[in-house]
Amino acid sequence: MRSKSFVLRVTTVHPRTRAVAAGKPSTTGSAAAVGGIMTGVRWFRRRIRPLPRARTPLDVVPGLVARAEAGHPHAFHDLCEGLLGAAAEPTCAGRALDALTASRPTLWLDLDLALRAPWYDYMRPARRPGTSRGWEPGTTLDVALRASSHDGYEREQAVRHDAMRTDFRLLPVLVIRAADWVDEVRIAALETLRLVLADPAADLLAALPIAVRLGDRRRGGPALAEVRAALLRADDGTSARARGCADPRARRFAYRVSLDSGRLRETDLMAAALGESDAVSRVWCAEAVGRMDRPDLLERLLTGRSARVRAVALTGLVRLGRPEHGARFLDDRSTVVRLTAQWAVRRAGGDPAQTCRALLAARPGARVAGLIAGLGDCGGGGDAGLVRPYLADPRPAVRAEAVRALLRLGAPVDLIPMLGDPAPAVVWRAVTGLRRSGVPADRLWPLLGPGLPRHVRQAAHRLLTGVDTWTRLKADLTLMGDTDESLRRRARADLVMWRADGAATMYTSPPRQLADELAALIDAAEASLGQREAAELRWFLSVGG
Length: 545
Known about the structure:
Elements: H1 15-21, H2 31-48, H3 57-70, H4 75-86, H5 90-102, H6 107-115, H7 140-146, H8 152-159, H9 162-166, H10 171-177, H11 183-197, H12 204-214, H13 221-233, H14 236-243, H15 248-261, H16 266-275, H17 279-290, H18 295-301, H19 307-319, H20 335-347, H21 352-361, H22 368-378, H23 384-387, H24 396-409, H25 424-437, H26 445-448, H27 454-464, H28 469-479, H29 485-500, H30 512-524, H31 526-529, H32 531-543
Helix pairs in contact: 1-2, 3-4, 3-5, 4-6, 8-11, 10-11, 10-12, 11-13, 12-13, 12-15, 15-17, 16-17, 17-19, 18-19, 19-20, 20-22, 21-22, 22-24, 24-25, 25-27, 28-29, 28-30, 30-32
């Protein structure tokens, strides 16, 4: 027995409505009630009567497609109605299908889900008289819509239709049906898909983004295998266009297929490793170059802008017995490259920390930030004296790296003054260290006051909320009436989190003086909090949780 879904149309009429329609008196209500019923019936009939269209589907559907792509609410509902209205008119249907083809292919995945709603079955063209299953398709768009029906028999007939084999605009729909949950539909769609993809004129890029996503589904493997086979058979131009696909997942799939099959030439690999926009594909190509054991190519990759590519190139050179390149990357802006360079220096018999010390002593100018970071990676506690003077450097990047290096070296340093730094990067480095070591709240309250830069006040608020529960509550309430909207939102969000999580673990009351301060802050913020929330906070103060 075929396990296909079907729709059972049932029209029900309330007995009172039948009686009124037949001109019989109502026995269950007054004349006023009957009049109300008839008014409702007339209103419903006016509502379902087709309204005159100000625009034809020829004009409407492209706009609906654009709205659906932009993510407007109810856009797919409107698009489904527009497509079902356009399916009966050949000119409108062709233009509507062209609009869908010009959009992103993955739009069909969302559209297929929306079209399977039983509601749209009532809006489709009627089946041929005298046939129990089957219809006379008026347009190619009608075939596409029937392929997205919730009726399995209609989906099977649609994928077997001649239009599925001849009109390549239906290829995304065919790929979706090749992962159908009904065996008969899926088998028929796979057979048709195999025939379509064998045609060199088929647009493989229309099928690739959908097939990659369907590959994650339980029944999507065969469809993805068919697209992979077609990609392997494709000529170099089609393969290159697939690797340039705008969809990131499809792009990576095309690169993976090309790399696994060895279709990428040396020039293609180098161009992709140095200039490919997708970071994952770029690293894959760099690793493929590394497997070629060509030091000349790896040295070229050392100039790449991608840190991962530089790290891959440096690793390949060390593996080939060329570790001398590591010394010039000890100050690289990327941590992964610096660590690889330190490994390379050790493989060459050197000491990366000693090299960084010597270069810092020489005052290398623009390389200071990288060298300080490198010394923080591989240096020791005795290097703190070499790093500490850079806390006063005029360059924010150098000051931030100096804070980070001192923290990594475990050197004692008073980070409170750094919280007032004009550069946010320096302040957040200091916040990172202070959250680990802790800081007295009395040193942070002055930094929360008005008149200071926003990033300084945000840092103070973040640290105060980590001291203890009552200090956190005081910091939030202090900012509830602040003139800075960003700080108010931040305090409000943290207060909501405290009420949801932290309030349940309150078992003690605050000290008397702090309780009085909190009570005054609650009174001042009551207009923002609301009476109910303010009352809850007062209750917490009185009972301690």
